[in-house]
Design brief:
The protein is α/β, with parallel strands linked by helices. The protein is built from nine helices and eight strands. Helix content is 49%, strand content 15%. The strands form two sheets. The chain has a five-stranded parallel sheet with strand order 2-6-1-7-8, sandwiched between helices. A three-stranded antiparallel sheet has the order 3-4-5, covered by helices on one side. The structure holds 2'-deoxycytidine-5'-monophosphate.
């Protein structure tokens, strides 16, 4: 019997999934699982090996040897490891975002990562974010949220994040990458990005982080009967 509780948050890149999921997880005492980081680590491995990422056979061939693991540091932040190396920062570049999107289109990669994700949800109360959490990974999740925002609003946020990290990019470049990934993530045959039928849609185009957080808190409260700890909501 599954005694853990799961909240699935899906949506396109830049809708605010990870920062909102992280904050909700801290407020409600759940484990936050960023599944995009796992796909990014596979993307980084493929990039470093210089293989053809569009070829499922080429990507599938590296999977058996792939040594991917994840953990949490003392601050509770998820860290990704590739052959023991902490690659949590290396997986965040725009180039690796595209690699992640490419490798994530292959059913072999998705099957390879499925059990890892489900096991986390069996062992912990999780807030898991991704593209197919409510539809494929955790179809029985107690609450499913589909978080979205216009491509322009998402590009603006991503630009600010990249600028804060000192990565020089233009708005047009960021918007182009977002539109490319949206297309690829939602048009692929394997577990495409789409809202589960029973997901609650939240559009964050015109609301800021705090307001979006309040919306999610109220959904969690209503649906799961939980109260956030130490948060004024
Ligand atoms: O959430 P993110 O931007 O870090 O994800 C990186 C890529 O990984 C994204 O382009 C799509 C893919 N991904 C996926 O296919 N399924 C998931 N559950 C999470 C991410």
């Amino acid at each position: 019997m599954n005694e853990t509780v799961a909240i699935a948050i899906d949506g396109p890149s830049g809708a605010g999934k990870s920062s909102l999921a992280r904050r909700c997880a801290a407020a409600f005492g759940f484990l936050y699982v960023d599944t995009g980081a796992i796909y990014r680590t596979v993307g980084l491995a493929a990039y470093r090996l210089g293989i053809n990422r569009k070829s499922e056979a080429a990507v599938a061939a590296i999977l058996p040897e792939l040594d991917i693991s994840m953990g949490y540091n003392e601050a509770g932040e998820q860290r990704m490891f590739l052959a023991g190396e902490d690659v949590s920062a290396a997986i965040r570049t725009p180039e690796i975002s595209l690699c992640a999107s490419d490798v994530s289109a292959h059913p072999a990669v998705r099957a390879f990562l499925l059990e890892m994700q489900r096991k986390l949800a069996q062992e912990h109360n999780v807030i898991m974010d991704g593209r197919d959490i409510g539809t494929v990974v955790l179809p029985e999740a107690e609450l499913k949220i589909f978080l979205t925002a216009s491509p322009e609003a998402r590009a603006q946020r991503r630009l600010r994040e990249l600028e804060a990290k000192g990565t020089p990019v233009s708005f047009e470049e960021v918007l182009r990458d977002i539109e490319y990934r949206d297309r690829q993530d939602s048009q692929r045959a394997a577990a495409p990005l789409r809202a589960a039928e029973d997901a609650v849609r939240v559009d964050t185009s015109d609301i800021g982080f705090e307001e979006s957080f309040q919306v999610l808190c109220s959904l969690i409260r209503k649906r799961l009967g939980l109260e956030p700890a130490g948060e004024k909501v």
